[in-house]
């Protein structure tokens, strides 16, 4: 009997223990239950990623893998800008003729129409004179042209359109100087590079012209070093650096606010060390009223001359500023001995006559013309192509 009771007690205890254990287990199981399943968060995909998904990953992949850290963006490795080989400068103006024709034909067409009239009375001659002056030809050259045209027309009597065109072309070429030497002096002196100093009023296009010229010289097979002697603004040296990187020319620069003459000196020294063909020194655009700054330009030139010969001093002139720009340019001519003019923005004016007046006022030939903002929009000036563009075909 006692053993019965003992057995029952053991069974009761065992049942209780099992039930308690199961109860505890059940409670723990509830605690450990996973949180209700939420839909995965979908990260908004930026526009640029939508356009170009990372290779191998689809958009579905992205949605599923959101709990993992977002994919790291590819590290941007700086890539050196590709250096393009420009076309040679020869014949460049012919290729850019359309630019000229677009802006200049009103002058040419107007003159051709006036000169073709049957009766050329004083009123018509006055109109011809006004047209020429209005196109920035300048008073003295205009008078010379009109006088010559009057005599020729009298001799001719009745005129065919071809004859009128021929007459006008001849007169324009005479005024521009068809036979003027417009060679850009960029030949090396033995081992030494040629040096080109680029000067002019601010905003005329000095830095752009420096870059374009470097590109064209490199295209012709030269090694070019650029001197960023515009130290007044850090952005100026950066602008030149961008050109240098683009065309494959080394750029020598100094600290912002540093001595422009010392940068010019260093650039020439580098050119000599590197056996470069040409060193082009870009300078700051400065107002002629700041005498101190103008003196500084003289100093830049003198300092370069301690190391090399300055072969060209190019005055950059904005064709759209007309007579006003010319007056400012004259002051540069007094400080440095200008050897040539780079006439920029000729694509943006109908007053092509400035070619004539600027040469006359400054006594130096236009050697280069800027016909746009692109890297190949600089051409050696060709009077014949210019006049043909003026008069149309
Ligand atoms: N349409 C046209 N724009 C030109 C030409 N040459 C230069 N430019 C533009 O003129 C502006 C001024 O050019 P820059 O080369 O910075 O002039 P800059 O003389 O160096 O100016 P500063 O350094 O401020 O004195 C730029 O926007 C050029 O792209 C040209 O032949 N045609
Ligand atoms: Mg500049």
Automatic annotation (TrEMBL):
Segments crossing the lipid bilayer: 6-26
EC class name: hydrolase
Disordered: annotated segments: 32-86
Keyword flag Nucleotide-binding: yes
Compositional bias segments (type: Basic and acidic residues): 40-51
GO molecular function, one term: GTP binding
InterPro entries for this protein: AAA+_ATPase, P-loop_NTPase, Signal_recog_particl_SRP54_hlx, SR_rcpt_FtsY, SRP/SRP_N, SRP54_GTPase_dom, SRP54_N_sf
Record: residues binding GTP: 200-207, 282-286, 344-347
Keywords: Cell membrane, Cytoplasm, GTP-binding, Hydrolase, Membrane, Nucleotide-binding, Receptor, Transmembrane, Transmembrane helix
Record domain SRP54-type proteins GTP-binding: where: 365-378
Function comment: Involved in targeting and insertion of nascent membrane proteins into the cytoplasmic membrane. Acts as a receptor for the complex formed by the signal recognition particle (SRP) and the ribosome-nascent chain (RNC).
Protein name: Signal recognition particle receptor FtsY
Taxonomic path: Bacteria, Bacillati, Actinomycetota, Actinomycetes, Streptosporangiales
